[in-house]
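User: Structure tokens for both sequences below?

Assistant:
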Amino acid sequence: MRKVSQANFFPRLARRRGIEGIPIVSFALGHKGELAKSSGHEIMNDAALEAIRNGASYPHIPEPLNEKSITFKLSISYILSGP
């Protein structure tokens, strides 16, 4: 979450149009910490996914978990604080 928060940005087009939202994006990380897949559309979803991509690199999945990937659902707030 920290890496995604640091890479997050409010899309200019959304800011100009006064669009706010809290998209919930789903993505999977591979066993080496790579972004395996993502889902989403629309302005806010695309910005959230971009933050996830820009937040890389992510840690490897610990061997004891014996998983090839782990899927996450993450909500990211895009709220305008004023005019």
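Moving on to the next sequence.
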Amino acid sequence: MLTKTKVKSRIRKKTNPLLRETIAEAVKNDAWFEISKLLSSPKSRYSEINLKEIDSNSSVGDTLIIPGKVLSKGNLTKKLRVCALSISEKAKNKLKETKSEFVPLIEEIKKNPKAEGVRIIK
């Protein structure tokens, strides 16, 4: 089981400043601790989710958390709010077509410290 101390020690091994800041913010809030554990793990364990999977695992108006990257395979058919570490350019354009919104994960953690109304897709 990972503790907050272990997650904090893993932050030092990360070289991406945005990732380090995101994990540090997630550790501060108990509601986001599961995300901090996922992000402090090796990068090979991060999720890479296609729009097709996002579309099939969501309903209109959902706020989805992806601890990794959003890729462009498939299409969206509904308006969503997607929060992830990163997103491909093609996926970002497809989100705009459905008037969906992409929000960097760190912004969502800061704006919604209690993680209310979010769903994690791994």
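User: Anything stand out in the second?

Assistant: The longest strand covers residues 63-71.
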